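Purpose: get a first structural picture of the assembly so the mutagenesis plan has something to point at.
Setup: two entries, given in the order below. No constraints added.
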Amino acid sequence: MLTKRIIPCLDVKDGRVVKGVNFVNLRDAGDPVECGEIYSREGADELVFLDITATSDSRNTVADMVRRVAERVFIPFTVGGGIRTAEDMKAILREGADKISVNSAALNRPELIKEGADHFGRQCIVVAIDARKRRQHRDGSQFENGEKWKSEDGWTVFRSGGRIDTGTDAIEWAERTCDLGAGELLVTSMDCDGTKAGYDIDLTRTISERTGVPIIASGGAGTKEHFYDVLTDGKADAALAASLFHYRELSIEEVKTYLKERGIPVRS
Amino acid sequence: MNNIAVIDYDAGNIRSVLNALKNLGQSAILTGDRSEILSAERVILPGVGSFGDAMSKLENYGLIDVIHDVCDSGTPLLGICLGQQLLFDSSEESPGVKGLGIIRGTCTRIPDGTNEDGTVRKIPQIGWNDLSYPQTGSGCEGRLFKGVSEHSYVYFVHSYCVVPDDRSVIKATTQYGITVAASVEQGNVFACQFHPEKSSDTGQKILENFLTIPKLSIKEAGL
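Result (structure tokens, whole complex):
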């Protein structure tokens, strides 16, 4: 039976893992290869490397990192951050990455998704969507005093690392990216990210039900139960977390053991 | 003599296959050259993309006859992912396109439907799924799976699966709404629908097993 996937995400800047990975036995907490190897040994099903280097001359650094990771890590991995053209995608895939993830560039120019899917197959095109609950009603009217967000208010998509609200509806954008050729969606809840209070179950479930591709849920993991909730009620196919794993608050093994005991298929 | 030849026909990401072989201490060359392929001790046919595109590339590079010659000579051949599907006669993905026809049968799309838990089956299948061995106890177990326990997990990315005329060539299966032929073996021709090069220790063991398969004598190959 196809298993649910647990995916650690590593932020990388200038070819180095930022925020480090706080593991004993790790010689260099900033080395993406070593971090990738240790997560692979611990049972990660995939890895995501997110390049947050702000400069445009980071292309070669990223390609070099991908090459070194692919030489030593034998599980699938995705690389995202700053990918703007099909040429950028090719440079990363040819060094051994399995998938590339696009976010702002796809919002600026949605055809990029189609170009990627046509050239490399949709299975390697992941569209990352940063979504936040609307702060006003869909029709633009303000919430009355004390009025709370309801699911029919929906979510909007942010770009540029969550700095700019595009006003685009997240569910409609998710559907459109799939029509264009997205093979998977990496859905981050900006409301939940960093809170450790759980994933946005409504958001992942709605997108999962409205699209036919696998959904990777991101943002908000704090406990084992949160993984269970998003993989069941949230209808996610995979769950991603970063600092929770890096700082050893939970291990991948603990999460998987918990899920397995509750009847969720996981790779052991 | 080159140890392993990985057939080069612009088939997408083959770097990972080369890396996995290197990790096993093997030197592999990526080549589309007839004599280099035919002199190798083992040959790997990778593949990502569509059936029709891949077949027309193999044809343009003059590799169809070369692959048939590899099989006829008894040299162990391993098809990976689309490389497994190409070994068959045809595929629903590209109607009218002739496959390599080395193993009799066709390729069909994973059918739409619902999974065991009531959720809609997503296509492609992307992720880790476990292996079952239909030939267990028959004396015809898959040689790639020696020392790999049943229900080990491997990594799949595919929308189509092979349907051999002779079911006995299927050495490993996985469940995805239907029973998917995860691996086939016919003589010295081997193939996997999953990606051993991305399947962690299990995948490395499967590749290692392939590297120990001896060449068949011409007589055996002709059988």
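Helices of chain B lie at 15-23, 34-39, 51-60, 64-73, 82-86, 200-211, 218-222.
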